[in-house]
Amino acid sequence: MTRAQRPVANVSVTDPVSYLMPCIADARAREILARRWRCRIRLTATPTPLHRLPNFSELLGREVWIKRDDLTGFAAGGNKSRKLELIIADAMNARATSLVTVGAQQSNHARTVAAAATAAGIDAHLILGGRAPHRPSGNLLLDDLFGAETHFVDGLDWTSMSQHARQLCARLRDQGNRTKRPYLVPAGGSTGSGVLAYAAAFLEIHHQLDLVDRTEATIVHASSTGGTQAGLELGAALLGVPANIVGVDVAQIHADLGGRVRDLVAATAELGFDPPAVTPTVFDEYLGPGYALASDRSQAAMTVLARHEGIVTDPVYTAKAVAALSDPRLTGPIVFLHTGGVPAMFADDAAATYPAVQRSKGRPLAAAQNNY
Asked: What domain range includes position 214?
């Protein structure tokens, strides 16, 4: 099949989320989600495309589609932009004067929070793990461009960074004589509102899959803080359809990511839902050397996808999910949910971080494919 023949799920409605909302049997859940969806702060260019990957499918010997949430259209924010539409609405309702969040030095989430804050006309404070570089590049350059104030904390200890964030919120309130109202956004935007954003996104994906008769497909995505996966699980439960969802743990921020996903779904009770019991599927074999670190397998997967389909992932996050697409436990059609993350590729130290990509330059694909 040539690229010109690639089947595309042409969305027949401009807002598939609202289109499928009446299909939610639980009237209370339907009303809550519909209200939150209407009141979101619109940042994204959704719905995003869903299309087949013909060359990649032929290579793997299985049918692979891609959901292009890397194209949500706001600050290259990927899945983070969807979550922030609802989170920013919460912050505005709280009359926030700034957003405070945490992340690694090249955090995609932190960069998107910085952009969302400036779009909302408020300040952004980013607590980032590691020492300040000699000069900003990649996501750090964008953080500066969006006017965020960065605060560096030695190491990448999430408990310590969260503590620093809470302390900063307290200092900001004290400095402003209580006129400053910082709003703390947890890592990855994994809040109840962030979960609802991806429950809505599941409705969009389900509608697109229905158009191409692939509703049984398994959705595979990179998972770290659990919010995206929790939202997909909740969305499937609300529609009453099987939750064929696999989260690929790319960070091990949580010792039990499946348990974290269950907790996030359960926490939607605070928003008025009767949360369903979910049994998340997590693949934890693709982490490699650790969070924010590339593996040979992720670099190979990134290279193969790029050179077969012209689609860019990053080796420390989304490419680890691409590596999992060949996993023998997956059966039937597969949808790779591309959650974004490309700007980190342009960090000054990217070449040193991704040596396998440099080694494969100008060489046949065979080496990368063998690693994959």
From this structure: 3-78+191-371
